[in-house]
Amino acid sequence: MIHPSYVEMIDKINEDQDREDAPLVTSRYSVVLATARRARQLVSGAEAFVRDVDKNGKPRKPLSVAVDEFYDDKVHIVRRNTAEEETEAEE
Predict the structure, then answer these.
(1) Cβ-proximal residues to 66 (8 Å cutoff; 6+ apart), any chain
(2) Of these four, 60, 69, 89, 90, which has the most CB atoms within 10 Å of its CB?
(3) pLDDT at 26 (0 to 100)
(4) Distances in whole angstroms, Cα of residue 16 to Cα of each of 21, 31, 55, 62
């Protein structure tokens, strides 16, 4: 079994949201997209915010590091402001 599970990840990412706001993540697909994007950043040379080597000193896979970063609240998903995006697209 994979730890953390998708359900745990979704709950963890959404736990700091206000009750009035819509949840940031509502599906497994959203979790997969967010962690994949972060893993690509790590592959491109971004600094990892959790241990990127295992207890034996062997490098961990970027996707595993990305999942741990989200689960440990080291990396957060930020909601895009669609009004700003539309304004930039019109210009």
Answers:
(1) 35, 36, 38, 39, 42, 75
(2) 69
(3) 78
(4) 10, 16, 31, 25
Do residues 10 and 25 touch, judged by C-beta distance below 8 A?
yes
Cα dihedral across residues 53, 76, 34, 4: positive or negative: positive
If one counts every other C-beta atom within 10 angstroms of the C-beta of residue 91, the result is 4
**Cis, bond preceding 4 (omega within 30 deg of 0):** yes
Give me the percent of the chain exceeding a pLDDT of 90. 41
Amino acid at 79: R
The predicted-structure confidence for 36-61, as pLDDT tens digits, reads as follows: 999 999 999 999 999 999 999 999 99
Residue where the block lists tokens 């819509």: 22
* Residue that the structure tokens 């909601």 belong to: 79
The phi and psi torsions of 59 (rounded to 5 degrees) equal: -60, 140
Mean pLDDT, rounded, for 58-76: 92
